[in-house]
Amino acid sequence: MYTLNGTFTQQTNFYGGNDIFDLAEQYGTPLYVYNEAVLRERCKEMKNLVTYDNFVPHYSIKANTNIHLLKIVREEGLHADVMSPGEIFLAMQSGYKAEELFFIPNNVTKEDMLYAIEHNVTTSVDSLDQLKLYGMLNPGGKVAIRFNPGVGAGHHEKVVTAGKKTKFGVNPEYIPEVKKLLETYSLTLVGINQHIGSLFMDPTPYIQSLDSILEIARQFDDLEFVDLGGGFGIPYHKQDGENRLDIKALGQKLDEVLHAFAKSYGKKIQFQIEPGRYIVAECSAMVGSVTSMKTNGPVKYLGCDVGFNNLQRPIMYDSHHDIELYTKEERSTKAEPFTVVGNICESGDILAKDRVLPEAQSGDMIALMDAGAYGYSMSSSYNQRFRPAEVLIGLDGSVKQIRKRDTFEDLIRNML
Ligand SMILES: Cc1ncc(COP(=O)(O)O)c(C=O)c1O
Fold it and tell me: How far does the chain reach from its first CA to its final CA, in angstroms?
C-alpha cells in the first residue's frame, strides 16, 4: 500500500504494519480502525493532568461505547460518565463498577432515574423538577446537581452547553430552591458538576468557568466531589500543522485552582473531569473505498462508501476530518480541490468540500482521520446501510475485530 497524502498514519505506525487493502478485504469497508497505543497515551495524559492527589478523570463514554475500548480505558484507571441507562449497561458490561460511574442525564424519565438508583450509580440532576423527582424516588439518598456556570465554549453552537442559550444545568440563582428541595426529601448533595461545551483548544474559558462552579461549591457543606466537565479539544487539522491543546499549561493552571480551593474549603474534596473526545478521537480512522470519480459542472467529486450514516460529524457540525488516500501501486497524481461524498441518497452527504487532494481512482482507499469520537456512537442505518465493523490494532500490531458489521437480519430484528 502507498500513501498518496498525509503522513500521520505513517509517522505513528497507526496501522501497526498492516496493509489497509488487506484489512478492507477481510472486514469490508467502511471500517473503523482503532489504535490501542494512541488510546492508552491519551488516557495517561488525562490521568497525569494534575498533581492534586484526589483527582479522578472520567471518560465520557457517549463519545464511543465499544466495550473493548472501555476495558482499555478502565485498565488505564479512568472512571466513566454515562448519560443513559444504555450507557450504564454498556459500561457495566465492560467491567465498570457502580462506584466508578457517574450518571449525568438530561430530561430523564422516572424509569431512567430508577435504573441508576437501583444500580447504585451516583446521579446528577439538571433541573429543579428532576431534583424533585429524584427526591421522591430516593428520599434520604445522595445526589449531585449539574449547574450552569454562565460561561459557554465550543467549536459550534450545537456543542455549547453552558451560558444563556442552552437547556443544560441549573442556574445558580435557584440555589435557595435547591436547598429547600434537598431538605424536603432529606437528600445530601454530594457533588456538583458542569460541562461548558466541546472542543476548546484555548484553555482560558475552561479555567474561567471554574470560578463560578467553585463559588457554587462553597455554598454547600457536604460535597465529596466537584466535576469540572470535559470538552478538551484535539487538533483535527493536523495536515495544516495545527497545534495540540497545551495540556501541560492547562494542568498547571488547574492544579493551582484545585489546591487553592481545597485550602479554603477545608478539605481535599475529589475533583473530576469528563473528557470524551480527547480520549478516543485520535485513536481511530474511518476507512472507506473510493467508488467513483466524476465531474458535475464546476465540481469534481470523489465518491466513496463512507456515508454520513457512518460519520455524522461533517454534516452535523460542519466538522473537518483530515483525509488520507491510499493506493495499491505507487502513482504520482496532481492535487486539486475535490468534494468528497458518500453513498447516502441526500445531497447533503458531504464529508469534505473543495478539499485539495491528490486525484484518486476507483479502487483506492480513503481514511477520514480522528474519527474515534462521535463516529460509531452517532452512526445509524439510514438508507438501510449497515453500520460498519470495528477493528483494534494492538500494541504489537495484531488485529482484533471488536465489532461485526451489521447484516440484513439486523435491519429487521425489531420489526413485528
Ligand atoms: C455532560 C457532558 N460531559 C462530557 C461531555 C464530553 O465532551 P467532549 O467529548 O467534548 O470532551 C459531553 C459532551 O457533549 C457532555 O455533554
Answer: 46
pTM beyond cutoff 0.90:
yes
Q: Is 64 in the pocket of ligand 1 (CB under 6 A)?
A: no
Backbone phi, then psi, for 175, in 5-degree steps?
-60, -40
Q: Is 277 in the pocket of ligand 1 (CB under 6 A)?
A: yes
Where does the pLDDT of residue 199 fall: very low under 50, low under 70, confident under 90, or very high at 90 and above?
A: confident
Q: Are 375 and 311 in contact (CB under 8 A)?
A: yes
Q: Which atom of ligand 1 approaches the CA of 232 most closely? A: 11
Tell me which of 3.40.50.11060, 3.40.50.720, 3.20.20.10, 3.40.50.300 is the CATH number of domain 37-279: 3.20.20.10
Secondary structure of 88-149 as H, E, C letters: HHHHHHCCCCHHHEEECCCCCCHHHHHHHHHCCCEEEECCHHHHHHHHHHCCCCEEEEEECC
Residue with cell 424516588: 137
Is 304 part of the annotated catalytic residue set?
no
- CATH number of the domain located at residue range(s) 2-34+282-406 in this protein: 2.40.37.10
- Per-residue pLDDT reduced to its tens digit, 385-411: 999 999 999 999 999 999 999 999 999
